[in-house]
Amino acid sequence: MEPPKEFQRKFKWTDIYIIAEGLAIAHPDVKPLAVRFTDLHKWIVELPGFSDDPQKSNEKILETIQMAWLEEVE
């Protein structure tokens, strides 16, 4: 199966909705609010197409991504 076109290009921490969609696809049975930030960070940097510095994230970015992921699955 070919990855969605969003993942055929590189993306960064600021691409919140692309990341949220990727998490929803990669982890369809996971409740976003049940994920620890350490796991969330790991899953994001493992997404195909992620090309940013893993150290550039912070709690605010991770929380924003988590909320966008929640919106994506609801």
Account of the protein in words:
This protein is mainly α and 74 residues long. It has a single domain, classed as Arc Repressor Mutant, subunit A (Orthogonal Bundle). 47% of the residues lie in helices and 0% in strands. It has helices at 16-26, 37-45, 59-73. Helix 1 (16-26) crosses helix 3 (59-73). It is globular, with a radius of gyration of 11 Å.
List the helices and strands and how they pair.
Blueprint: H1 16-26, H2 37-45, H3 59-73
Helix pairs in contact: 1-3
Quote the distance from N terminus to C terminus: 25 Å
Low-confidence blocks of residues: none
Number of strands: 0
Oligomerization category of the chains in this entry: single chain
**Count of helical regions:** 3
Mean pLDDT across all amino acids: 91
The coarse overall form would be: globular
Category from helices, strands and their pairing: mainly alpha
- Largest sheet, if any? none
Query: Portion of residues in helices?
Result: 40-55%
Secondary-structure element series? HHH
The CATH C-level class name = Mainly Alpha
Q: What is the CATH architecture assignment?
A: Orthogonal Bundle
Please give a handful of descriptors for the protein shown:
74 residues, mainly alpha, globular
In short:
With 74 residues, the chain is mainly alpha-helical. Helices cover 47% and strands 0% of the residues. Helix 1 (16-26) crosses helix 3 (59-73).
